[in-house]
Each structure stands twice: as C-alpha cells, then as structure tokens.
Specification:
Distance between the termini: 55 Å
Number of domains: 2
Order of helices and strands: HEEHHHEEHHHHHHHH
Largest sheet: 4 strands, antiparallel
Strand content: 5-15%
Oligomer: single chain
C-alpha cells in the first residue's frame, strides 16, 4: 500500500472510531484509540495520556472537559467482554495525545494530520462569548507550542547545514511557500494586511496555527530521520513538508491557510490580558 493510501486508510479509521453522545458531541474512546495507534498494551499508553492531560492543563483548558473518566468494554477472547477503566476523549484531547505519542509510527504521524488539521469545529457551547474564549485559549496554547517546536526546528536545520540567520530565513520561507501555495513570509504578511512590526504567527487563528505547528514538527522530524545534509536539501525538505500539509488540508475539505480570516486580537494582546487576569487572582 502506498503512502497516500496508508494515510487515507488511517484518516478513515480515526473517523470510524469517532462516537457521538446524546448531546451531539463527538468523542473517541482511549482504549480503542491506543490500539489504532499501535500500542499493544494500554498501560504503555497511560504515560502518553498523562503528558496530554498536563499539556491540556497548561493550555488553560479544563482537563475534565476533554478527558472524561469512564469504563470501556474490552474483548478478552472467546467473544467475551469486560468493563475496563478508560477515558472518553474530545478531539482536542486526541490532538494532544498524538502530539505526545511516538512520532516514528506512520499511524501517529497521520493521526497528527487528522486531529490537527480537521477544520470542523467542535460545538463546545452555544454561547458566542464562551466559544470565543475557547478559541483564544487554543491560540495561546498553539502559539506557545509553535515557539518551542521552532527552536527544535532551528536545531535540526543547523545540523543539516542551515547556519546563518539569512540561511534560516530562506529555509523558513521554503516551508511557508509549500504550505501557502507559493507565498513566503513577506507575501503572507501582505496578504493579511499587517503592519511591518506585526508578526504573522501572532495574527493566526487556531486552525492556521495548528497547520503551521504540524509543518514545523514534521519538518524537524524528517530532517533528523532522513539525516538531510546541505542547505538546498534542507530547504527542499521543508518545502515538501509544507506542501504535504497543504495537500492534506485540501483532501479534508479545509480552507487554505492564506484564505483563513485574521483574528481581531493578536496573540500578544491575549497574553497581556491573561497576565492581567492572573495578576488579579
């Protein structure tokens, strides 16, 4: 089975595992998901769940809203089943899980694509203000994640031969060009109508940030895994990863990143607001 066919099969599997509760909310069962992610024993998946729960807490989310403790029926052979402790997981919880799982497995890499790039929003609440608050929290979390993963991407690029500040700017632009259909950082900046002092990553919504986070994590992984050497090869690798993410968005029926709306508030404003709230507590 070819790479694209494997990816499609994985995406279809994740979609089939999805369940809908009585309130119309989607969720996935942890034990089922662990098997799909090729964890032979659920106990080996528990540390991944713990890391994801911690990441959820650090992002300002209510962990109990995304990791709901419950029991799951598990086959024990000969057609018999037994109730075992498990979790009902939100899409966001699944996203955090695949980000913290073993990235060398193709099913997990494809899981990162599926959960990070699905543009169909969850109905967390029908209150518009509450919905917006959740979006802001997602943006803060994803922007901070991207900052950390960009540091790792810089390290991987340096090992490949991307040495100077100018070299890295060129390298970064290759990733953007792949993801944004030929637009580099300057082109994205102009497309968004931003001022010179404004950073493009601070003016992205959660869907766009998730796409860029996936681009960064997968570019870093590919540079290291393939032991890429030379600036030209590193640039081409980053472009190919960006283009792959773009293709996945297209296959999922999502909006191209350059077409996504620019949020009213920058991440910098959200950070200042968060610090004010924390300072008043």
């Amino acid at each position: 089975m070819r790479g694209k066919e494997i990816e499609k099969a994985h995406h279809e599997t994740f979609e089939k595992l999805k369940k809908i509760n009585e309130y119309g909310q989607e969720y996935w069962m942890a034990r089922q998901l662990s098997k799909t992610l090729e964890y032979a024993e659920f106990r080996n998946f528990l540390p991944v769940i713990e890391k994801a729960r911690k990441a959820c807490e650090n992002s300002g989310q209510q962990v109990a809203d995304h990791f709901v403790e419950m029991h799951e029926m598990v086959s024990i052979g000969s057609g018999a089943e037994r109730e075992m402790p498990s979790f009902a997981l939100s899409r966001y919880a699944c996203y955090l899980l695949v980000q913290n799982a073993d990235p060398t497995k193709s099913v997990i890499a494809n899981g990162q694509t599926y959960f990070a790039l699905q543009t169909r929003r969850q109905e967390l609440a029908d209150d518009e203000a509450f919905q917006q608050l959740k979006e802001d929290e997602k943006r803060l979390f994803l922007r901070n994640e991207l900052k950390e993963h960009n540091k790792q991407l810089v390290e991987a690029a340096q090992l490949a031969g991307v040495e100077t500040t100018i070299d890295f700017a060129v390298f970064q632009n290759h990733g953007y060009k792949g993801l944004y259909g030929g637009l580099d950082a300057k082109g994205i900046h102009g497309r968004k109508g931003l001022k010179k002092s404004q950073k493009i990553l601070d003016h992205m919504g959660s869907t766009e940030l998730a796409a860029n986070l996936f681009r960064a994590t997968q570019a870093e992984e590919k540079l290291r895994r393939d032991e890429v050497k030379g600036k030209d090869k590193a640039n081409q690798t980053h472009f190919e990863v960006g283009a792959k993410v773009r293709q996945t968005i297209k296959e999922l029926g999502g909006t191209m990143p350059e077409e996504l709306p620019v949020p009213e508030k920058s991440v910098k404003k959200l950070e200042r607001k968060q610090k004010m709230v924390e300072g008043g507590e």
